[in-house]
Amino acid sequence: RGLSFMLTAPNVWHMGCWLTAWTVWMSGTIPGASASPRLAAETLPFPAQALDAAFDASGTLHIVYVKDSLTFYTRRTPEAQVFDPPTRIDPGGPKVTVGGRERKPRLAVGPAGQLYVVWQVGDQALRFVRSTDGGETWTAVPVRDRGARRGIDMPTVATGHDGTVYVLWIDYRDPTPPDDMVAAHLYLDRSNDDGLSFGRDQS
Fold first, then answer.
1. Average pLDDT of the residues of the chain
2. Tag placement on the chain: N or C end, fewer CB within 10 Å?
3. What number of other Cβ atoms are within 10 A of residue 33's Cβ?
4. Cα–Cα distance between 114 and 111 in angstroms, integer?
């Protein structure tokens, strides 16, 4: 058992770019949650690009998305009838690189409701931010060895039941032998302190 969701996205052309009116279709139940819809649809009341969504144990729907190359956050609690007003994540931070289905902000929720978001910055860096107050404030934390100069792609984030935070991405730092058909490798960094710090990169 568990909760699954599907994102549908009719595109809208506005002010010279494609915007999206997202609908989140939910079904199933959240184990241990106080409010878990069997079947519901949530349509964002504003246009968005490159959306990602996650639920916490209380049934609150958390959403991150892109607008004007910036990352925003909103949520809807089970008791609320509307989404909270969107707020920008990491004001003053770098813009997000968007492309295809995978280059977009990625969201994960920790066991105690912590919020973790990671996104790609250009083709050389990633940005990781965390919030422990329900998205009111965000703190950036360095991830990926500073000495790694070659490109990355498609970073994502996940959490374990024990609270470990995992950040994964495709990395092009390793030399590629002429007969190697793999031009890049999957790299992992993890945090054992709720995203306050990360260890060394692992291939």
1. 77
2. N
3. 16
4. 7
Q: What angle do CA 179, 183, 189 make, to 5 degrees?
A: 130
pLDDT at 30: 42
CB hemisphere CA count around 180 (13 angstroms) = 8
Counting Cα atoms < 13 Å in the Cβ hemisphere of 170 gives 8
From residue 144, how far is each of 54, 93, 108 by CA, in Å? Answer: 24, 17, 18
Long-range contacts: 144-153, Cβ < 8 Å, 24+? 144/169, 144/171, 144/187, 144/189, 144/201, 145/200, 145/201, 148/173, 148/201, 149/124, 149/173, 150/124, 151/123, 151/124, 152/120, 152/123, 152/124, 152/125, 152/126, 152/187, 153/103, 153/120, 153/123, 153/184
CA atoms within 13 A on the CB side of 174: 15
Look at residue 23 and tell me whether its pLDDT is greater than 80. no
Q: Residue with structure tokens 């506005």?
A: 14
What does the pLDDT look like over 168-195, one tens digit per residue? 988 887 766 666 656 778 889 999 999 9
